[in-house]
Amino acid sequence: MFKTYCIIIIFLIGFGTTNGLAQTAVLDSLENILQKTSSDTAKIRLHIKIAEILSATQTAKAQKNAQKALEIAQKYRLTTREVESMLLIGSLFFQQNKPEKTLQQAVQALKIAEKARDSVLIHDCLVSMSNYYMGQHNVKKSLANLENSLIFFQKKQLNQRIINTAITLGNVYYQSNEFKKAQTNYELALRYVRPVKNHRSLAMCLGNLGNVCDELKDYAQAVRYYQEALAIYRQKNRKFAIAWMLGNLGATYYKMQDYNNAEKYLNEGRTLARETQALEWLLHNYEYSAKLAEVRQDYRLALDFQKQYLSTKDSLFNERKTQQINELQTRFETEKKEAENLALKKERTLHQQIINTQKTYNLLIISLLALVSVIAFFLYWARTKLHQQNTILKTQKEEILQQKEEIQEINEDLDQKVRERTAHLSARNQQLTQYNFINSHKLRAPLANILGLINLAREVPDAIKAEDWLRMIEHSSQELDKIVYEINALLDNDED
Question: Which of 49, 222, 426, 494 satisfies CB 3.0 to 4.6 Å to 213 for a cystine?
Fold first, then answer.
């Protein structure tokens, strides 16, 4: 169980633990760049990098940087960086022994990845969720997520993800005491990591393979893996990891009964573990140092190491208990604060709902008043328009009636004129008839007499005296004159 715990710790910390000066220099450099850059995309990467470096030593500060990266990513809807930041926050919660929050972050990230339909991000989330399941000893779920993701990453040839997933899968199998399967996955990760020369992942694979070989009692191979990992850690001056490797080498040499090498590595590892205050490695070191002293029959030294082992165990126990108490206290205060915030949020929500409801009612009332005003205006306008139309119609009716009366009067006058004209025409016709009669009968007779007398005077001999002829012509002329007078009188009556 101790080595299982060590594997998980080293996997999460990786190369995050470096010497203080080097870490401070790197952080100062990154924070200086962060202050100067104006690119939000660059700020996200810098916040994430700073969070990764601080993850082993300053979890709270690391979490602030990861949260800041998440806020910027959410602002600009950068899905990949958003998911990456969430998963980093989840891993920090895992280090703080808050698996529920780890799962919560992974689930939220998974929803975003599924919405974006990004298969790579989806499997990144599944791998992160497997850490939660591993911590909860739900091996079945953890393995299902990891194996599916590993197959997917291999198809996509995403080497770094293959390495990380294979290492995590190896850790789950190691925790389940399935050392052969753990070895297979660590070796798979090793095959991918050697060509890319990723020292962090390489040293991690080598150390984990050393642990597996130690469990399988292949001590010689375990030593080779430990030595190679130790060389990398020494080169990078990772004191925390160096103490881990030295302690493992000392324990393995003890199992091989190579007590001189065991003493050499245990002594060096113990000194470095004290320096870095790595109580887990120190506890492991004291255990095998006591066994080594006992084998050499140095019982006083063995007793001393045993006392230090028990003291360190108590310290570690107390430290863990204190840490657990602090974490419980922090969790209680956090949950209390969250509950208060939730209650306040609910109160604000309720208040906002009341305000929104009041606004809705006010808006409804205003809308109804506006509608009533529009309807009233429309009715007034329609009534005015109707009144105007009625006035126009009344005027037109009066005009029509007046025109009707005028027409009626005109018709009556016309009838009178027609009657008068008809009577006039009748009288005229009668006059014409009389004229025609006079012309045909009365006027013709005297004229015919005169003409006859003239012809007779020409034909008859001078037996008749001229006076007789003149008397007869005079008589006929007087008759003709009388008839002409009648005609004139008749024409005068016609003009009247």
Answer: 222
What contacts 377, CB < 8 A, 6 or more positions away?
A: none
Q: Which domain holds residue 463?
A: 443-496
How far apart (Å, rounded) are the C-alpha atoms in residues 8 and 4?
A: 6
Of 126-135, 295-304, 327-336, 464-473, the poorest mean pLDDT is in 327-336
CA distances from 175 to 123, 161, 190, 208 (A): 22, 21, 19, 12
Contact 286, 267 (CB under 8 A): no
Q: Is 178 helix (H, G, I), strand (E, B) or coil?
A: coil
Residues 153, 161: Cα–Cα separation, whole Å: 7
Q: What is the mean pLDDT of residues 36-46?
A: 88
Overall average pLDDT of the 29-33 stretch: 87
pLDDT score for 253: 94
What is the distance between the alpha carbons of residues 49 and 66, in angstroms, rounded to a whole number? 9
Q: Is 479 exposed, middle or buried (0-12, 13-18, 19+ CB in 10 A)?
A: middle
Q: With respect to residue 478, please indicate whether it lies within any of the assigned structural domains.
A: yes
Per-residue confidence band for 11, with pLDDT thresholds at 50, 70 and 90: very low
d(CA 488, CA 71): 131
How many domains, the chain? Answer: 1
How many angstroms separate the CA atoms of 203 and 197, rounded? 10
Mean pLDDT, the chain, integer: 81
The answer as to whether 412 is a domain residue is: no
421 vs 440: CA distance, rounded Å: 27
Cβ(281)–Cβ(243) under 8 Å? yes
Tens of pLDDT, residue by residue over 74-87, are: 988 888 999 999 98
Asked if residue 492 is part of any domain, the answer here is yes
Distance CA 101, CA 345 (A): 20
Query: Residue 196 pLDDT more than 60?
Result: yes
Q: Return the DSSP state at 438.
A: I
What predicted TM-score, i.e. pTM, was given to this entire model? Answer: 0.60
Q: How many CB atoms lie under 10 A from the CB of residue 474?
A: 11
- Distance in angstroms (rounded) separating the CA atoms of residues 452 and 424: 39
CB distance 153 to 161 below 8 Å? yes
Of the candidates 82, 14, 20, the one whose C-alpha atom is nearest the C-alpha of residue 48 is 82
Instruction: With respect to residue 479, please indicate whether it lies within any of the assigned structural domains.
Output: yes
The least confident of 70-74, 212-216, 219-223, 445-449 is 445-449
Which among 80, 78, 13, 83 has a CA at the least distance from the CA of 52?
Answer: 13
The lowest-confidence range among 40-54, 198-212, 240-254, 433-447 is 433-447
